[in-house]
Write a structure and sequence with these properties.
The chain is α/β, with parallel strands linked by helices. It has a single domain (7-235), classed as TIM Barrel, CATH 3.20.20.390. The chain contains nine helices and eight strands. Strands 1-2-3-4-5-6-7-8 form an eight-stranded parallel barrel, surrounded by six helices. Helix 6 packs parallel to helix 7. The longest helix has 16 residues, at 107-122. It is globular, with a radius of gyration of 16 Å. The chain starts with 7 loop residues before the first helix and ends in a 7-residue tail after the last helix. 42% of the residues are buried. The structure holds SN-glycerol-1-phosphate (1GP).
Length: 242
């Protein structure tokens, strides 16, 4: 059955064509201060964010859905699930990044979890956006590396990062996500963003360890189409006001 509402990806592509840069705030339901949720939502609405990503490494589906429902009530931004595993699915969101952890060689994250998720997603109306996910070494062991039991791509290995992103595009992914990991010491190297954005055609998401507005601008200049901010906004809801 054809899914309805397939326009979030179209909007991302259109933004790329028109060189409009996009910004996603990543919310981890486990780290939300629920007492302060109204203020958080107000700050999101006042921020330059164009999308909200919801997910985290260890989140349970019920709390994820609670957050999605709150977001749907109080913001107009598209809500995209960024799942850590197949339990993190909510049909109340608008879309899901259907991730393959292409930098790793753990079959669970290359195909097993996708097989588990497929029949669940088939019954929902979520827009599915196949996304090649590349974890890039960032100075410290990140939650993604630990939980997925995979080794990130060495940050100096530009050839491997490019070949992996190109393979991801050839496999039919619609986005490439260059991930340093949440709270990373070092974000994805700018020359890596540049090389990949110049040599693949699909939009590039960049996230992990971006803690200054100037870093967001630099990532855009190097060719990032979407920048993801999690920890910096989580630690300071005034982050975008500085
Ligand atoms: C993590 O790319 C996101 O998956 C965001 O990372 O929390 O470091 O901003 P930060």
């Amino acid at each position: 059955m054809e899914q309805e509402g397939q326009d979030i990806y179209k909007q991302i592509r259109l933004a790329k064509v028109e060189n409009r840069k996009l910004l996603a705030i990543l919310l981890d339901p486990d780290k939300i201060n629920w007492q302060n949720i109204d203020n958080l939502l107000l700050k999101i609405n006042q921020s330059p964010a164009t999308h909200i990503f919801v997910g985290g490494s260890l989140v349970k589906s019920t709390i994820l859905e609670d957050l999605v429902l709150q977001l749907k009530l109080k913001t107009n931004l598209p809500i995209i699930i960024f799942p850590g595993d197949p339990s993190q699915i909510s049909g109340k969101a608008d879309a899901i990044l259907f991730l393959s952890l292409l930098s790793g060689r753990n079959p669970d994250y290359l195909i097993e979890y996708q097989v588990q998720a497929a029949p669940i997603l088939k019954k929902m109306n979520l827009e599915i956006i196949p996304t090649g996910y590349l974890l890039i070494e960032s100075g410290n062991e990140t939650a993604v590396a630990k939980i997925s039991k995979t080794k990130p791509i060495d940050r100096s290995n530009l050839d491997l990062a490019l070949a992996t992103a190109q393979a991801g595009e050839m496999l039919g992914n619609k986005l490439i996500y260059l991930e340093a990991g949440s709270g990373a010491k070092q974000s994805v190297p700018l020359e890596m963003i540049q090389l990949i954005s110049q040599n693949v055609h699909i939009p590039i998401i960049v996230g992990g360890g971006i803690v200054a507005l100037s870093q967001i601008q630099k990532a855009y200049q190097m060719g990032a189409d979407v920048v993801v901010i999690g920890t910096a906004f989580e630690n300071d809801i005034h982050f975008f006001e500085s």
